[in-house]
Design goal:
There is one protein chain. It is rod-shaped and about 160 Å long. It has about 450 residues and is α+β, with helices and mostly antiparallel strands. The relative contact order is 0.06. The strands form three sheets. The protein has a five-stranded mixed sheet with strand order 6-8-9-11-10. Strands 2-1-4-3 form a four-stranded antiparallel sheet, covered by helices on one side. The chain contains ten helices and eleven strands. The structure holds adenosine-5'-triphosphate (ATP) and magnesium ion. The site of magnesium ion has 5 residues, from helix 8.
Length: about 450
Amino acid sequence: MKRFDLGRVWIRQLLFAAVAIAVAIGPVVVLAHGVATAQIQDYISHRRQAAEFEAGQVIAADAQMNGWSDIGQLLPRLAQVTGERIVLTNAGGQVVADSAQQVKPGAKAPRLPDAHQLRIVSPTGTLLGVATLTPSPALINSASRNNFAGIVADALLVAAGASFVVALLLSFVLSHTITGPITAVISAARKLQRGDLGARVKVAASGELAELAHSFNAMADGLDEANQQRQQMVADVAHELRTPLTILRGYLEALADGVIAPTPDALRGVHTEAVHLQHLVEDLQDLALAESKQLVMDRTAVEVPGLVRGIVDGFALQAREKNIDLSAAFEGQVPTITGDARRLGEVLRNLVANALAYTPAGGRVDVRVRPTQEGGVEVAVADTGIGIGPQDLANVFERFYRTDKSRTRATGGAGLGLTIAKRLVEAHGGRIGVESEPGRGSRFWFTLPAPS
Ligand SMILES: Nc1ncnc2c1ncn2[C@@H]1O[C@H](COP(=O)(O)OP(=O)(O)OP(=O)(O)O)[C@@H](O)[C@H]1O
Ligand SMILES: [Mg+2]
């Protein structure tokens, strides 16, 4: 990232702050300067009027006391007080004196631009002469006026500059309190991208930034967990495939070496393992499709009692061989539902096969169909088998989960049947569950919603 990239939050915020401060302070400075200058000018013009009046009095008194004999020295000093050039003419219109000493006494009064006149009269009211006053920038008063305005302008500029700097500093600090946590999230995201799934953000404050950090950490947790599940899944699949493949390989090597003869029995053993493998791979594929929600469903109207009857009849022989009493019961009037009959059959076959597998000889397996209160259908498979302990009950629907960890494929399946059943039932909008008591039996059930 470039150092001064306009896209960076703190630079943008600083620019915004600078513009906002300039917009807020600028008019105040201009207005204050204008008002102060006007006030100063007002004050100075009052002062000048008073000074001019005084000057008129002094000139009149001087005329009476010594007939303007020393007016040449007096006039420049009066000019300093009023801040104006003063040209004094007598009643006859001839110049008596000029404070700027440009016009000679006795000359005709000059025409001066911007001039105004002050009549010099004696206490008795006779006109003694006329003083012509013109503003003179060279004189002290007007310089002090400029000085005044300059001082006010300087003070305003210093105040504005100082508040601008302080405001910028504050906004810089503020922007860093915002960009700090964002930068932390960015750097943690980069670590995640590089494969460091342990990267997390420290959550210090509260508010939106803390929420951002929390959400990021939750996302990282999710990724971490998904990654661990994936690794576990690959390990489990490899483990499940290893056993049938080892058996197959053993058979084939023994056949090739002539250790066993290729009799129909031996070949049937090879075939059984191949079928096992094929089922496992099919189960895995179903599971992968169901978990990625890509399972294609062939939805039709399904009569659940008919479906259940067919499947229970299909298991009759197996139940008789194991000496288990398998029965089906139908309660009330159940609605026709919409679903994939083949997949729903798969769910029920899985439950019945489990019930028969985990129920000892002499036990009972009852399949019961009944309407639910919500207008759907419930199918339950209850057995009098070994049951499931409370610590296993919550996990039996997890893939590859088997309550007896030491059990091999010879004594049971891969632990995928219930996982697939759960996914299929959920894909139909239904729910699946189990109640069980170790040593007394289990009751697996699933519901399917009424057609909408
Ligand atoms: N009716 C039951 N009684 C007792 N335990 C059961 C019952 N049904 C399932 N279980 C337990 O739950 C585990 C998971 O069952 P699931 O059907 O998923 O796998 P599996 O039968 O072992 O293998 P698969 O069905 O993939 O061939 C079983 O291994 C078993 O320990
Ligand atoms: Mg099973």
